[in-house]
Design brief:
The chain is about 50% helix and about 5% strand. By secondary structure, the protein is mostly helical.
Length: about 130
């Protein structure tokens, strides 16, 4: 673990609400590992430019899936990406923890509202240039 990546943080975790969202997404789009879906939630949050803010309805990280920082991002590339999007952050693992929960909840909502109907939809902007 690099000191620039996690500041000694050992675990990151989903909120209970995000874990429910992850399971809803998994029912529709099965992934081999749940951690892959959590990474997808982080990527979706970054793609949408969600702010890593834990509002009143955020919940408590730790009520959901708990992951070792080293196994979540063994190469440090995800935390490097978080730092690139949020250079002001002191702890990219904490920002990732927030964004992965926010991203999973938003993705589940967007699937439910048919704004996302296939995984490829999250890769491309809906700008009519399919």
């Amino acid at each position: 673990m690099s000191e620039t990546t996690t500041h000694g943080r050992v675990n990151i975790a989903l909120t209970g609400r995000a874990e429910i969202a992850r399971d809803e997404i998994s029912a529709r789009y099965p992934f081999r590992e749940k951690q892959q879906l959590v990474r997808l939630g982080l990527a979706y949050a970054l793609r949408l430019g969600l702010e890593p803010v834990r509002g009143g309805d955020f919940g408590r990280a730790g009520d959901g899936q708990n992951m070792n920082v080293g196994s979540f991002d063994p190469s440090g590339e995800l935390f490097g990406l978080v730092r690139a999007f949020h250079p002001e952050c002191d702890d990219p693992a904490e920002v990732a923890e927030t964004l992965m929960s926010l991203g999973l909840v938003k993705l589940a909502e967007d699937i439910q509202n048919s704004e996302v109907t296939r995984i490829a939809d999250i890769l491309y902007a809906n700008d009519g240039t399919d």
